[in-house]
Automatic annotation (TrEMBL):
Gene3D superfamilies: Type II secretion system (T2SS), domain F (1.20.81.30). It comes from Candidatus Liberibacter solanacearum. Pfam families: T2SSF (PF00482). It is found in: Cell membrane. Its main location: membrane. This is Pilus assembly protein. InterPro entries: T2SS_GspF_dom, T2SS_GspF_sf. One of its GO terms (cellular component) is plasma membrane. PANTHER family: INTEGRAL MEMBRANE PROTEIN-RELATED, PILUS ASSEMBLY PROTEIN. Residues 161-282 form the Type II secretion system protein GspF domain. The chain crosses the membrane at residues 6-26, 101-118, 124-142, 263-284, 304-324.
Length: 328
């Protein structure tokens, strides 16, 4: 009898939970549809007798919105899969192919495997080190190179936008301004804008050439820049003012990022102290009590314990990095 009552209670609670979940989802969907209908300017104006907004302005606004949607869709198609190995290699800027990366990974795994075999004399530990170093270390190095290159690009990109703004205000076309950037800027901004110039030499327009930058530098800043150029080419507008505003926004984001990094230095210092404690304690025990900790390196069970400890250390480092890593 108690079992039947418990079963009915469980079924009832599940039914109530599913009902409330469906109610929340459906209410959100209905609310979004009603709010989108209420925000649609054409439907609002049709329901009113006195039109307060001219129809020509509505048509122009709708055309601009459709153009923005098409541009965003084309940008997403051009970016493609940003997680693929070929994309990551192109983002890092190193002159490698996928085959070269695989060869480098194999060599790194082989070298670290031989070193671990010489140190621990254990085939299992050597195999684990070989696999982890060949799969993890090259990817970590690639991500580090990508992050370093992106930081350099973002540091120089506002200056490149200022060059375009000054050139456009002085009467030069955008293509000549991009050529000036190639001659005056440093890498990686120079290499990315050189691709734009080369694409123009192949017959592409300025907007199409700039849109190709997202394939090699998939950043929001580059997407904004490409969108501004594309909208100006299709609908017109004050290009110098738009790029000047974008340059100011990028500089403000850079200042905000510096403030956030300064505030996060205390957390980073704490993370370094916590991460270095196991090594400091191990060295202290080794020098104060010689031979006490040697069993971890000589006994196979100690190798397993060291492997588990290394895994937990890496996991803790990843968690602490995620806690102190702020996006601006």
């Amino acid at each position: 009898m108690d079992l039947d009552i418990n079963s009915f209670l469980v079924v009832g609670l599940i039914s109530i939970s599913v009902f409330f979940l469906l109610y929340v989802l459906l209410s959100k969907t209905i609310g979004l549809e009603s709010s989108s209908e209420s925000r649609d300017p054409e439907k609002v104006i049709k329901g009113k007798k006195n039109n307060t907004i001219p129809s020509e302005a509505l048509k122009r606004r709708k055309a601009l919105r459709d153009a923005m949607d098409k541009i965003e869709l084309s940008h997403k198609e051009k970016v493609g899969n940003t997680k693929s190995l070929s994309s990551l290699i192109s983002y890092s800027g190193i002159p490698f192919s996928k085959q070269h990366f695989y060869i480098f990974s194999f060599v790194m795994g082989l070298v670290f495997g031989i070193i671990s075999l010489a140190l621990f004399s254990s085939f299992f530990v050597s195999l684990c080190v070989c696999l982890s170093s060949s799969l993890v270390f090259p990817r970590v190095l690639l991500q580090y190179l990508i992050k370093k290159r992106i930081a350099k690009f973002l540091n120089e990109f506002p200056n490149a936008l200022d060059i375009i703004v000054r050139s456009v205000r002085s009467g030069l076309p955008v293509s000549d301004a991009i050529s000036i950037i190639v001659g005056q800027s440093s890498d990686p901004v120079r290499s990315e804008f050189r691709r734009v110039v080369e694409a123009q030499h192949l017959g592409l327009s300025v907007s199409e050439s700039v849109a190709r930058m997202i394939r090699y530098m998939p950043l929001q800043e580059v997407s904004f820049f490409s969108t501004v150029i594309s909208v100006q080419a299709q609908s017109g507008g004050n290009l110098s003012e738009a790029l000047s505003n974008l340059s100011g926004i990028l500089r403000e984001r850079k200042k905000m990022k510096g403030k956030v990094q300064a505030l996060a230095m205390e957390a980073k210092a704490s993370a370094w102290i916590i991460g270095s404690l196991p090594f400091c304690v191990s060295l202290l025990v080794h020098f104060t009590s010689p031979g006490y900790i040697d069993i971890l390196f000589l006994d196979p069970r100690g190798h397993i314990i060291l492997g588990i400890a290394a895994f937990l250390m890496v996991l803790g480092a990843v968690v602490m990095r995620a806690m102190i890593n702020f996006d601006v």
